[in-house]
Amino acid sequence: MNGHNEHKKDDMSEVEKWMEQFFLDPLTSYMDQLTFRIDLYETHTHIIVEALLPDVEPEDIDIVLEDHIITIAAKKKNKDSCSRTIELPFRVADKRVHAQFANGILEVWIDKNLSGNGKKRYIIISE
Fold this sequence. Notes:
The protein is an alpha+beta fold.
């Protein structure tokens, strides 16, 4: 049982290191200005990826999970398309993921404990 808890602590320290690198990377700020802003949050049970998409309708957003990568693609009302790819320090395809969109904010919730199917997949957005 202790081995399992130690493994979880190692995973979480990797996530903390990754989040720090993500926010310190100058490319992150550049991409926030060039495409759309991405913020990351962590709770006890989830990693939350938040994308600010004020000029987008939910049906014009695609979220794709593949291996360690989340790709968020959006078509703005002025017909410009943009996307962001986020590489995580764990296989996001192996996690349970759901998304919500309201008031121009997309939240992608990645469950730390519950498993997904491990395959490339699109996430359906709840409103």
